[in-house]
Amino acid sequence: xxxxxxxxxxFGSLVTAASLLGDFIGLGRRGEIGAxxxxxxxxxxxxxxxxxGLLTLDxxxxxxxxxxxxxWLRRVIDLPPLFWVVTSFVAVYLFLFVSPMFLAxxxxxxxxxxxxxxxVTHIGFDIDMTMGRVGRWLATGNSPYQDLYYYSPVTLIxxxxxxxxxxPAYYNLSTFVTVMAFVGSSLILPLYFSRKRNFAFxxxxxxxxxxxxxxxxxxxRGQYNVIxxxxxxxxxxxxxxxxxxxxxxxxxxxxxxxxxxxxVFLTLMFIRDWRDWKxxxxxxxxxxxINFALLFVLGYQLFIDFVRNLTGAQLDFQSSRRxxxxxxxxxxxxxxxxxxxLGQHTALLEGLFLALFFLCLVAVVIADYRGKRKGxxxxxxxxxxxxxxxxxxxxVDYKLPLLIAPLAILLSDLxxxxxxxxxxxxxxxxxxxxxxxxxxxxxxxVKPFIFSRNFPALFILLLSATALYFVTANxxxxxxxxxxxxxx
Length: 488
Prior knowledge:
The protein is an all-alpha fold. The protein has 19 helices and no strands. α7 (169-193) runs parallel beside α10, α7 packs parallel to α17 (404-412) and α15 runs parallel beside α19 (455-472). It starts with a helix and ends in a 16-residue tail after the last helix.
């Protein structure tokens, strides 16, 4: 350490002296101090100070100099996961915010038109379109499913009273409720779910999510995905932490399914013990029966119209829009713009991506079953949430805020791997998963073409989260639910 310090001090002194005396030895213009000289002085002084600092450490008997390369590696690997999550955030921030805004052109280039225009460019277009269909249904009695309307008959009943308010009052109300639901689902409920109470992850993802492209898109359109997810997440919390409130858990979860249908992917979260298969089957069958019966709330004909529209959209709809999240949309991209030769294998590719998703899901379920683990699994929550985003054929970027709570809970409760090798793999997976998530915070207008759709980032997040489960699963043999009375 002492030798290295002296080398830095001597070399820095020489660089500084050479820079200051450049005029006298023929390296510059006499009487003028050039930019190169100032740069040389800066570098020389910096090297001198670095050497002086190292010399001080050596004289103080610091163990820094005696640490082996393996010791340094252990120190790096033992850094908390938050370090790698923040590091990946900074990297993506520089790549997708600083670079396109300040470095792409000589003038400041703000993100203009990064939220896609609606067909009619006024704010709250989606909720206004929904209210228009509800209004025509009430006024004429004609089926609202005569055009592209995919929501259940229950939504007609829920939204009908909002007609009294009119536009833009019902949009303003929707915006306020969405913001409150975002706070509840992305901050408050994760605090109660988190076993380790590692608030750093929760606050980081919550604050960054407030300014994310997906959440702004949700607010601009007047969508209610965040509201729906908040209902489903609250239902899961009641089911696992307040067993006596099971009725309200099933009620809220059924309401979430009726509002958006895709929360059905969270049904697996209503299982406490995978080995208690009889009660699990009864519970799932009961939820299925209740939600199927609710589809008839406005009569048989509207039920038929709804099913026809929903199945038709799922089977036939493919979006070429960059803000589409679905497997079908990405495969369309893959077979038209990237690898046109694969155009005849569209169905095979879609099936392959679906099979990989369900392979991840089933692998975690089987591991929980064989490990006799009880309670809810944060990895399974994140995997199921990703399924809600990529499997429906009509899936848009304003659903991205739904990732915040599952990922924050998973990272805050992440178990530490036991051996050095598994720790290294765990660090890599955390970095990959967090990088994939940070990519979803930015609009497609500033991202490379391959990542302009968010499906690749979501699929990378799916694979890395699944792999993280198996890397860290052996760190605990039983995931029991904590006493609700000691929750925050």
